[in-house]
Amino acid sequence: MTDDLFTPIEIQSIKSKIDFWLQNQIDEDAVIKSADYDINESRWYVRVTGEEKQHYMILLTLRQRTLHFETYVMPEPEENKEDFYRHFLMRNNKLKNLSFSIGQENAIYLSGEMQNQSISESSLDWMIGSIYATIELTFKPALKIGFASRFFG
């Protein structure tokens, strides 16, 4: 990683690249349904439609050196807590540049980041595709573990 911070002009160029890519995804009727930008936080709120988890929001935060991305996956489990958290920790072994973590109120989040100089259409495709695929593969099994009696009992 370089110690050089990106200049305001470079950050604006990256922002424009991300804006353009997001708009193309929305126009193509991809899984991205909307994207709103918060200028104060330098953050996009990207609404995604999935199959196993119908809707979720991915937060993209542009920082001086990296683009950070995260999404809320699900709340703290009601039962089988050890197996529930084990499910996500074991999935971490198979992920590249993404990881599950426990956040506020013991909820599960999926997050990662990429270097600003690496941001391109293909890296943004990778990011959204990886988040989408990871949630699709983990969501329903996690529900069956942590909320079995509510949804499957």
Question: Mind explaining what this structure looks like?
Answer:
This protein is α+β, with helices and mostly antiparallel strands. The chain has a single domain, classed as Yope Regulator, Chain: A. Helices cover 41% and strands 28% of the residues. It has 4 helices and 6 strands. The protein has a 6-stranded antiparallel sheet. The termini are far apart.
Present the secondary structure layout:
Blueprint: H1 8-27, E1 32-38, E2 43-49, E3 55-62, E4 66-74, H2 81-92, E5 99-102, E6 108-115, H3 121-146, H4 148-151
Antiparallel strand pairs: 1-2, 2-3, 3-4, 4-6, 5-6
Helix pairs in contact: 2-3
How far apart, in Å, are the first and last alpha carbons?
Answer: 50 Å
User: Please, what is the oligomeric state?
Assistant: single chain
CATH topology: Yope Regulator, Chain: A
How many strand segments?
6
From the alpha-carbon coordinates, what is the Rg to the nearest angstrom? Answer: 17 Å
* Main sheet properties: 6 strands, antiparallel
| Morphology call | elongated
* Average pLDDT figure: 94
Strand content: 25-35%
Helix content: 40-55%
CATH architecture: 2-Layer Sandwich
- Structural class call reads alpha+beta
